[in-house]
Design goal:
Order of helices and strands: EHEHEEEEE
Oligomer: single chain
Helix content: 10-25%
Distance between the termini: 30 Å
Number of strands: 7
Shape: globular
Largest sheet: 3 strands, antiparallel
CATH architecture: 3-Layer(aba) Sandwich
Number of helices: 2
Number of domains: 1
CATH superfamily: Glutaredoxin
CATH topology: Glutaredoxin
Length: about 100
C-alpha cells in the first residue's frame, strides 16, 4: 500500500525482537518492527517513558532527508505538522 507512495512504515518499541515477533504474528502486522532496547531512538523523538522503559504512543512521518514532517504523541499536546524538525532538537509546537 505505501510502496506506491515511495513510503515505508516501521514500528519501534523497547521490546525484545522475540517479543515483537510474537506480537506481530498475533496482530498480523506486515511491516517491520524495530527493537530500541536502550531507548535512544525513542529519546531522540521525545517519546520515551524512561521510568517505565516504554514508548509513548506516537505517529511520526519523516521525509527522505530525515526531517520530521509530522509528529503526534498521543496523550500530550505535542503536535508538529509541516515544520522542519530534526530528532533530538529542542523545537516543539503544541496545539
Amino acid at each position: 500500500m505505501f510502496q506506491a507512495e515511495n513510503t515505508e512504515v516501521v514500528g519501534i518499541s523497547a521490546n525484545a525482537p522475540f517479543s515483537q515477533k510474537a506480537f506481530a504474528d498475533f496482530a498480523k502486522i506486515n511491516y517491520p518492527l524495530l527493537s530500541d532496547r536502550d531507548g535512544k531512538i525513542m529519546q531522540a523523538f521525545g517519546v520515551y517513558d524512561e521510568p517505565r522503559r516504554i514508548a509513548k504512543r506516537a505517529y511520526v512521518i519523516i521525509d527522505k532527508d530525515g526531517v520530521v514532517r509530522y509528529l503526534n504523541i498521543r496523550g500530550t499536546k505535542i503536535h508538529i505538522e509541516g515544520d522542519q524538525w530534526h530528532p533530538g532538537s529542542n523545537h516543539s509546537n503544541t496545539c
